[in-house]
Amino acid sequence: MLGILGIAVGFLMVFMAGVASRRNQTFWMWAFITFAILDFFTGIAYFIE
């Protein structure tokens, strides 16, 4: 359950990074991309466990 939630929040962060890049806010874009990568890895780890 936590793995699916982590992957879903990762997709949400990717979407928010796209919104930030459309508004030319590079700091928030890279912050959301970094958080999405970490969230995907934790989601996959919980999914495997």
Comma- or semicolon-separated keywords:
elongated; 49 residues; single chain; mainly alpha; 2 helices
Compile the SSE list and pairings:
Elements: H1 2-22, H2 26-48
Keywords: Membrane, Transmembrane, Transmembrane helix
Transmembrane segments: 27-48
What would you say this structure looks like, in words?
The chain crosses the membrane at residues 27-48. Keywords: Membrane, Transmembrane, Transmembrane helix. The mean pLDDT is 89. The protein is elongated, with a radius of gyration of 12 Å. The chain has 49 residues and is mainly alpha-helical. α1 (2-22) runs antiparallel to α2 (26-48). It is built from 2 helices and no strands. It has helices at 2-22, 26-48.
Give a short synopsis of this structure:
The chain is 90% helix and 0% strand. The protein has helices at 2-22, 26-48. The chain crosses the membrane at residues 27-48.
Counting DSSP H or I runs of 4 or more residues, the number of helices is 2
Number of domains: 1
* Percentage beta strand: under 5%
> What is the subunit organization of this protein?
single chain
Regions with pLDDT < 50 over 5+ consecutive residues? none
Helical fraction: over 70%
Q: H/E order of the elements?
A: HH
Global shape: elongated
Whole-number radius of gyration?
Answer: 12 Å
Distance between the termini: 11 Å
Number of DSSP-assigned strands:
0
Structural class: mainly alpha
Quick one: biggest sheet?
none
Mean pLDDT over the full residue set: 89
Transmembrane segments: 27-48
Keywords: Membrane, Transmembrane, Transmembrane helix
